[in-house]
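Hey,
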Amino acid sequence: MVTYRSGVDEVFRALADPTRRSLLDDLFREDGQTLSALEARFDITRFGVMKHLKQLEEAGLVVTKRRGREKLHFLNPVPIRLVHDRWVSKYAEPWAAGLSELKQRLENPMEKVFEIYIRTTPERLWDAIVDPEIRAKYNFGAAMVVDELKPGAHYEMTAPKAEAILGEGEILEVDPPRRLVQTMTAYFSEEAKAEGASRVTWEIEPIGDSCRLTLTHDQLRDGANSQLFGGWPMVLSGLKTWLESGELLTTPGSLMWG
């Protein structure tokens, strides 16, 4: 059985308010905004904006990160993706995946932040991220192959059904079972390849009997092609499903090279 952090009720309650939906729309258009920037766009008090943002955070729809003295707010599409996978993906055609491919823009370079809670241990979650055989189960059939997981090591993304490697990069930081940082250059399409290298950071934090996994994809150019980051909600949903239930989650992405 797959758990839903805080339950889907919180997600629906958060989305029921038009102001909160407008806040998400604003982050959709321009991600990584400060409270002051968001407040200036709404005809309500600063306290009112803070209250709405707090409820969105509690539902997992907004993630915050500190940048110096500023607190930035990022739209997190993963809870919406989980709702989609629960009720939509088993019936819908592959085009439905476009609902989760959010094109958001920020200052150059662009940054995307995704967060998900998984009922598992840090060690088991770490293994699922770095083990090639496990990684392929939820990562569109692609495995991360590296001779030795250490800073400076080169890795490749491969899949049996792919005609060539799907990507490659360098391992920058390794701190099991807490943090993995790597560069990524994607080759799965000409558009993705043209974007060049970016950076992906996996951060694991134990929370009681669960783990909070935060994935940050940054060093992207402003307006980068969404192929690079649009698939992360499906990947993280598949990772959560496999760790919590042992089952494979069928998504449009999983049918590509799986």
